[in-house]
Amino acid sequence: MWSRRQGRLSTLACGVEELRCRRREREAALRKARREQQLVSKRLLREDAPEEAGGQSAAVLLGEAEVQQFLRLAQRGTDEKEREKALVSLRRGLQHPETQQTFIRLEGSMRTLVGLLTSNRALLQLEAARCLHELSHSEQSAVAEACLPATSYLLTYLSGHSSEFIELCLYTLGNLIVESEAVRKQLLPQGIVPALVACIQSPHVAVLEALGYALSQLLQSKEAPEKIIPENLGFGYFLAVFERSHWYLCGSCSQPTSAGSSLLDSSLLQHMLRLMQPGPKLNLGVAVEFAWCLHYIICSQVNNAMLLSHGALPTLAMLLLDMAGAAQRMDDAGLELQLACPVFRCLSNLLTEVPVEAMGEQMELRDERIVAALFILLQFFLQKQPTLLSEGLWLLNNLTANSPTLCTSLLSLDLIEPLLQLLPLSNVISVLVLTVLCNIVEKGPAYCQRLWPGPLLSCLLNTLVLSDIEVVGQSLELLQLLFLYQPEAAQAFLQQSGLQALERHQEETQLRDRILALQQTAIHG
């Protein structure tokens, strides 16, 4: 009797470990894909221009002669008002893609516009910057590259005094950064990174939001993990100098030789996390932009251990709790819908960096309030934004993968039935829900006993009638774990025609071995 039990336990351990390894390999590929998902976009501040408040903002197609005329009037008009009006007309024309192409083909056009940008007339400077902003929003990389002569001046003006002008320059630079590698190659030596970092202490919310946007555009570039985050010089140095003497950055200056060796070594991260702290001073727009910045830094995997040591997890966990509270109060639906996605992704990816043995040290990872808050948000998204459900369930998967404590929380808070209710929504949702349930069941017999009896088996039988191979495969793995730990479930499966449900998938090559293994487990134990 004793010998038989030992043998069964040995076989059980092997089976569970094999299932775990197989699932973890598949999740690694999914996690890599989720890491690399990006939010590439461009921003347009056109609605901020007072001239367009009257509804005269339709793009106007300008010919070559008209572009030349407006440039000439802007440069040599009889008075400043006429010059400004010519630039306004040019800017409206530059909203049209064909006018943009005409402009960059004209010899000397960009030189004239840069000359107006650097004039000593504030209104002309602002309108010239707005023209550049229209060009930066183009979908054609050639248009963005034509703006390169203006970039050093845009960087220089980031140290100016007009928050409106700084905001415009930041969004223009952000649009240019994302367009092409050639643009970034020129902007990096010009000092784009230290110039951006120097803006993070601005008291103006609009400037901080624009900074977060521009920085996120830079951080999501393909060369960021190798050339921007770990190797960029000057973060700590430039920030320290800026704080000490209000030193104004010059776009043409070179980077210093004595500087911090990493973006993460500077105080930029602390400032970012400070701007994401929940509380009455939290600004949604700023928090969203810097949450995306943090997401791209985490995805680079340059030094996520440093992010953990600087308290990124507690900040993100508190944001999650704050979002759940707002969702319950329904006082700001926009907060959940905009901030949730980057926060979920940051938490999900950071959790993969926490060693299993260190899980207990991260108090925020074993607080059942995290699970409760996540389910509040899942219910909210079910009504408001179903596309975010998969993000929340991926986070739940990563939370429960290595945490028996949080698996216990799901059981003690009676959250299994709400989880099962999500199964019919889509195949993607089904796979994620089943994966979370696998995380619970693989923790051992005690966890399975708390799931049995209950609606789990009937739900799994329903998934077996589906045709999606991934959903069925995940159901098979969950059933295998459940039968190994809870023999009563195997008996109930047989009594409810489970073997017949399996037969419909026996022709699927990818499922055949797992179906055979499950049949043997169900029949022979």
From TrEMBL:
SUPFAM superfamilies: ARM repeat
Record flagged with keyword Membrane: yes
Assigned keywords, A-Z: Membrane, Transmembrane
Top-level taxon of the source organism: Eukaryota
InterPro entries assigned to the protein according to its UniProt record, in alphabetical order: ARM-like, ARM-type_fold, Armadillo
Protein name as it appears in the record: Transmembrane and coiled-coil domain-containing protein 6 isoform X1
Taxonomic lineage: Eukaryota, Metazoa, Chordata, Craniata, Vertebrata
The encoding gene: Tmco6
